[in-house]
Structure formats: structure tokens, C-alpha cells
Amino acid sequence: MVPLHLQGATPLYRQLYDGLRSAILHGQIQPGTRVPSTRALAIELQISRTTVLIAYQQLLAEGYLIGRRGSGTFIARTLTETLLSAQTREDLPAQEPRPERRLASSAVLLTQTTQALASVLMPNQDENPAFVLGMPALDAFPFSIWRQLLARRYQQSASHLFRYQPPLGYQPLREAIAAYLGMTRGVRCTADQIIVVVGSQQGLDLTARVLLRPGDSVWVENPGYLGARLTLLGAGANLIPIPVDREGLDIEAGLRRSSGARLAYVTPSHQFPLGAMMSLSRRFALLDWANRSAAWILEDDYDSEYRYVGRPLAALQGIDITDRVLYLGTFSKSLFPALRLGYLVVPPDLVDHFIAARLCSDTHGAALEQAVLADFISEGHFSRHLRRMRTLYAERQAILLEAAWQEGLSEILEMTSDETGMHLVGWLPAGVDDAELARQAAARYGLHCSPLSLFSLEPLPRSGLVLGYAAAGEQQIRTGVRQLAEVIRSTLHGPLSGPSRP
Questions:
Q1: 2: exposed, middle or buried (C-beta count within 10 Å: 0-12, 13-18, 19+)?
Q2: Domains, the chain, ranges and CATH?
Q3: pLDDT greater than 90 at residue 63
């Protein structure tokens, strides 16, 4: 009844357990039947008694067997008819449809959205790094220094850091972040207003859960950051796309479309993906709207560290006198993505609410990495690394522009230099389908040229490609440009003709 394969990959005790359980469920052994003793069954099957004992113990624990002192072990009589007639997965007809699974409407919408965006959000890291978005220059990161700091922390603080930590995050790291933001970004805060989060996505999620109710309207830049769109959709928000021009978010358009919105999500220092800097007049107009409407502003300080001309611009939060701005930053772009550390600066009266929301999810992030990062910042390594990266990224941006000019792409892929950031937008001729062009570049050469239309909730007047350059070396950039030029030239007058898709 229970065939065993002595040379099989599955352990014998598991084979015996599966065989007996199947026989019970299919009625081959009736309830109340006495089963052989472990010794007798071991002799009969010519296996170890310990093997039989382990299988029996599992069946006893799950209620299939019941032991009676002095009488032996029996098939449980309490097994219901439903259980006895239960089918195993192998018994189900191959084509029988599975019953409908009820899911939240937001879960269905998010799945549909992320499937289309997966190649942009999580590119294959083994492929060509040319044009990948949001990936820093890992080849230039000071891993030797990081390893030294990590080893030192293991030796000096392991016992303390391996315990539960405060939900706001490691105190010395919050103090280091507060000092850095005040000095370089003009952010007005104390360490007690800073929440160390697991990347900017958790900061977005916490903000949505604390400040928004399902159905609340939210201004989002159009085109804009995909991660924010997904998080806000998951919170049940009603997204209001607001156009972006050379001065950043169009506040007048926002007032026309939804003056009563609950939140505005903006990237004012370096708008993603177009790169605009929000003008001072619009910053004050946005703050005035938030104050009059009792609305909130989530300032995502995207790429602000990488300004190649002059000093980084002061944050919107620094000129907010009514505490309507929450400030979000991450170390994924400035250090490395796997670190998964970011920070959220919230107004003092919201701190307790954000702590409560944090405790509902993961309590706190990894303390050891937070301690190492605190050392990395306080000992000056972070500032030196940023200075080196500004120089390196400016060089790589220049290489991208030079390679495009040398390949003769200037007329069909219009790009201009940017004073900030890790990517450029290449504008395409009218009528070119940027999504199709990106698909062909990926299929032919494994290039990750993100279509501009992918970041938009409504049609844009012109299509384009968003090209990252920070993660690739000179030869990789030049090769990528040459391959992209071949794709554009070979298909520009073929299937690429057509409207840009939102």
C-alpha cells in the first residue's frame, strides 16, 4: 500500500508519511483501524524504526492518527466525510477552472500596472547597464571603506544592534541625517522628526496611510515617478495628473483640475523624469495652496545631491512656515540600491501618527546597516563620495551627449545637457511610438531605454526616451548609443510610426 523508493530524492520518512496520509484520505484505511506498531512496520518495510516513528509522529500531530495507551495506534474516528473525500492536487482534472479568488480592486489594478512597468522598475542586472534608470555607479563605490566600518560595528556594537530598535530608527543616524540636510538642503528639522524608512517606497506608503483616505484626490506630476503612482493607487487615491513645464508643476492647472486635492506629490529640485526645477514663484504658490486648502505636500528630493553647477538647491520644506510639507529622501541613488535605507521628515505634530503606522508594518529597519551608514556620514565618507560622483556623472553625461552627436542622432533624438541628475530625456520626432521603439531596443540588444509615455497618465505632446547614464562606463555608453542608433534608423519609417501612448 505504501511503496517506498530507497534511492529516491525524497526522504523515506516523508514517503511513508505521504503514503499513509493518502491512503487515509482516499478511504483505503478505514477510521478506527489499528495500524502496525513502529517496530512491526519497520521490519515489514525493511527500514529504520526511527523512520517509521517520525512519520507516525507527524500523522499524530496532524490528527490523522490517535494513540491509546496500552492499546496501540489507530486511524482517528473523528475524520469527517468531507476530509475523507478530499482530493489531492494530483486528483484535480488538469483543465478544471479554479474558483474565483476575491481580491481588493486596488490589488488587481496594481498587478496590471506593475506588469507593464516591471522591466523599468526591476531591470535584468546581467544585461547592458547603458540607459538603466536610477542605478548609481557601483563600480565607483568605496566598498573597502564600507567593509571596514561594517567589521568595526560587528566587533564593537553587535550585541546592542541585534536587539529591537526604536521605530524612528537608529538615533545617531537620524542626528547625522538632520545635520546633513540642514547644512546642504536647508531643511529645518530635528532628529526627532526623522523616520528612517526602508527606501523611499516605504516613506511613500507611510505618508499615504497616515494622510489619505480612499477616494482622496492627489496631484501627481505628469509625467512623473512610477513608484509614487503605484503606492498612491494602492492606497485608493484618485490621481490627478498635473502637467509639468520648464518651471515644474503647473499650479494653475492643478487648481483648475482639483483645487480640493488632499495631497500634492512633487519632485521640485529635479523633476522626474523631465529634469525641471520648480521656480520660486511656483514654490510659494504651491505652499499657499496647501495652507489655504489644509492640504499636504510630499517633497521627494529626487537626485538633488547630483548638481554639477553650483550648490544643490534649497528644499521646499525649508521655506514652509506652516508645516504642510513632508520631505522624502533615499540613499539608494547616492550609495547603492540594496542598502534599502531612506528617510522621511515629518512635521512635529505628525510624528506620533507616523510611529503608529510604522509599528503596523515592520517596527524598524535593519539596525546594523543604519549604524554603519551613520559612521559613513559622520566620518566624512559620504560627502567625499558625493563629490566624486558629481564629477563622474558629469563626465558620463558628457560622454552620452558626445556619442549621440558622433552617431548622428542629434536630428532624431534631441538631447541637451542637464545640470543635475543621473539621466537625460531624448526627444523623438513627432508621431514616433516610444514604447515600441523601447521594446525593439530591448529585444535586439537588451537595452533599457525607458519610454517617456510610460511615466504619463495622459497623452504627452511629444514622445521620448529616458536614458540613464550613471551606472555605465564609457565604452558601455558608446556601445549602447551605437546600438540604439541602429534600432532607430532601421525602424523609424516602419512600425514606429503612430501616436505616442500614455
A1: middle
A2: 12-90 (1.10.10.10), 128-134+384-491 (3.90.1150.10), 141-379 (3.40.640.10)
A3: no
